[in-house]
Amino acid sequence: MNHLQFKKILEEGEGATVEFKTSKEQLNKDVFETICAFLNRSGGFLILGVTDKKVVTGVNETALQRILDTLVITANNPQKLNPPFYISSQVMEYENKKVITTYIPESSQVHSTAGRIYDRNEDGDFNITNHADLVTQLYLRKQKTFSENQVFPFVCMEDFDLNIFDRVRALVKNQRRNHPWEELSNEDVMKSAGLFKRDMQTGKEGYTLAGVLLFGSERLIKNVLPYHKTDAILRVQNTDRYDDRDYIQSNLIESYLRLMKFVRKHLPEKFYIEDDQRINLRDHLFREIIGNLLVHREYSNPFPAKFVIEKDKVYTENWNKPHCIGSIDPANFSPFPKNPIIANFFKEIGWVDELGSGVRNAFKYCELYNTETKPIFIENDIFKAIIPIAKLPTQMSTQITTQMSTQITTQMTTSIETQIIQNKIVETILNYPNINRKDLSEIIGDITEDGVRYHLEKLKNDRIIKRVGSTRGYWKVLKKLSE
């Protein structure tokens, strides 16, 4: 939220989608009633440091971090907020006072706090726990609004791609040590992520469409969504047809990895120093674009999603449930989750950030990646993103591009970065000895599969790791780098 948005909200005051709390030294006791109500209704802005009379009193600086930590920890505690929900807050200064702003999106689940279900209207938060008809209506509205909630009672665990679970555990461990999913069974991971529900119309329980899309085998996905596909196309020399193509009909985890591989195969790298860290602008930019393409698509419609690389631009298309029409201005738009369960899952594994950050980051990284040209996002029945890029050479082969990219990456990697990367590789192998180069590349980030191969060979030559077996072999750590 910028200062103009905050000033406008402050002038309009509290309503169905805005709530002020003083929280000068600590969270108000009823904060999670509001969070629960926003999640259950239409989402909204929770602003701490403002009275209900629109007076900015601010949050004491000595209490800021404690309040921020309490928000995150409590939102992930199922005894306080059930099911838990990822919350991201922003601290901003207004009239020399600190305020905390948190956008709470509408959830596709029904949430409760301390065992009570709250709903929202113009007058505030209402406890509807003992009103069976209102609770039933709330469940039905969620199921009708969000297609990701559709229940498939005859889908069983054997229908899923079980290898994806280990891949997900490796990703969440890289995001947060001692993540609860590390110790949970596959079934409990699905339940914890909100991918197992009860259909309030039929009473049947089962895995949801979101669960099928995230963990489904190719066979399961073809049975449930036979029209599901993402078409990745390179069209630079042969503009009538294509130069390269990946026709993707797999789950969203595999789809993301294959799309990122397609990007790395055909688009040049460019590096940038951000907060004293060297980042790969190409990967940062298209991480946002691909995340948006997969997370916010309306999967109930057979329109095929597209990811197309042309000579001077990349564009994506996917079917959409629009909440506004026209071009999106990152400085003045309210983000709306199209598939909140899938979005929250992608946050947990580190592939997207908080709601709304994708558009802002895309604008930021796009201007750095090419010639300061802004991207275009068009909201309509078909959502379209257009990313201008520097013109691609038509004669340079993919092999030469890949070799040059790998050489440049290796040459630019400092000794400190090498140590960080190799530490991550060793740590990951300790937990997942069967992991492959592709998964290592995704978990570590900002490094290609060729870069991973280079570091693996270096670690083998230094007798840090060794390969046991061949095709079905595994990695063994001989000693840690710190020893």
Explain what this protein looks like in three dimensions:
Helix 10 packs antiparallel against helix 12, helix 14 crosses helix 16 and helix 15 crosses helix 16. The protein has a seven-stranded mixed β-sheet with strand order 13-12-16-17-20-19-18, with helices on one face. A four-stranded mixed β-sheet has the order 1-2-5-4. Strands 9-11-10 form a three-stranded antiparallel β-sheet. About 2% of the residues have low confidence. It has four domains: 132 residues, Schlafen, AAA domain (Methyltransferase, Cobalt-precorrin-4 Transmethylase, Domain 2, 2-Layer Sandwich); 79 residues, no CATH class; 159 residues, Heat Shock Protein 90 (2-Layer Sandwich), CATH 3.30.565; 65 residues, Winged helix-like DNA-binding domain superfamily/Winged helix DNA-binding domain (Arc Repressor Mutant, subunit A, Orthogonal Bundle), CATH 1.10.10.10. It has 483 residues and is of the alpha+beta class.
Please summarize the sheet with the most strands.
7 strands, mixed
What is the C-alpha radius of gyration, as a whole number of Å?
23 Å
CATH architecture of the largest domain: 2-Layer Sandwich
Q: Could you say what the CATH topology of the largest domain is called?
A: Heat Shock Protein 90
- Structural category: alpha+beta
Percent of residues in helices comes to 25-40%
Assign an overall shape. Answer: globular
Euclidean distance between termini CA atoms: 46 Å
The top level CATH class name of the largest domain: Alpha Beta
Report strand %: 15-25%
The averaged pLDDT comes out at 85
Summed up, the helix count is 16
Q: Low-confidence parts lasting 5 or more residues at pLDDT below 50?
A: 396-404
Number of distinct beta strands = 22
